[in-house]
């Protein structure tokens, strides 16, 4: 759980970076209640971050926004990158430590063999042909006419 001073420090960063001070903004950004936001805003007034309350208006921010971080030079970026890469083990080292997996012959499946055991793989079972039970155009559904139609359609 954070202390009150931690919340005031966080609120100071928020108010200085946004250059906008109100209790409702603190409630939204910090997810705190109205009474606690009022106490934090009063503490910011004592610290000299914001000005006095003027009714329902936002408070004036008396401190300048924080300094942006310095942009690193190209030499600093390259030095940091090479130091990071030197500290990490190389990919070749990781692959050398890994156990090789046996995949067998990848083309064996095309020859009808199992890739790891080189045994014959049974062919896919063919579907049994379903009996033709459709009606003809004339609406004749006698068993003899159905058998005749199925024989002629299968041939």
**Contiguous runs where pLDDT drops below 50 for at least 5 residues:** none
The general outline is elongated
Q: How many β-strand stretches?
A: 0
Using the coordinates shown, work out and report the CATH topology of the domain at 1-67. Answer: Arc Repressor Mutant, subunit A
Looking at the overall shape, the CATH architecture of the domain at 1-67 is: Orthogonal Bundle
Average per-residue pLDDT, rounded, comes to 75
> Topology as H/E string?
HHHHHH
Task: Report helical residue fraction.
Answer: 40-55%
Computed over alpha carbons, the radius of gyration is: 40 Å
Notable features of this structure?
Arc Repressor Mutant, subunit A; 155 residues; mainly alpha
Describe this structure in words.
There is one protein chain. With 155 residues, the chain is mainly alpha-helical. It contains 6 helices and no strands. The protein has helices at 4-18, 23-30, 34-47, 74-87, 91-97, 143-154. Helix 1 packs across helix 3. The protein is elongated and about 100 Å long. The N and C termini lie far apart (82 Å).
């Amino acid at each position: 759980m954070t202390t009150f001073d931690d919340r005031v420090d966080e609120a100071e960063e928020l108010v200085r970076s946004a250059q906008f001070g109100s209790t409702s903004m603190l409630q939204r950004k910090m997810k705190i209640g109205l009474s606690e936001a009022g106490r934090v805003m009063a503490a910011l007034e004592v610290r000299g971050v914001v000005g006095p309350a003027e009714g329902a208006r936002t408070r004036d921010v008396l401190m300048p926004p924080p300094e942006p971080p310095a942009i690193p030079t190209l030499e600093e970026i390259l030095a940091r990158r090479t130091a990071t890469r030197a500290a990490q083990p190389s990919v070749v080292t990781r692959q050398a430590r890994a156990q090789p997996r046996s995949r067998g012959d990848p083309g064996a499946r095309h020859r009808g063999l199992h890739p790891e055991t080189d045994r014959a793989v049974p062919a896919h079972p063919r579907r049994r042909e379903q009996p033709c039970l459709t009606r003809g155009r004339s609406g004749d559904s006698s068993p003899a006419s159905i058998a005749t139609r199925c024989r002629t359609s299968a041939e």
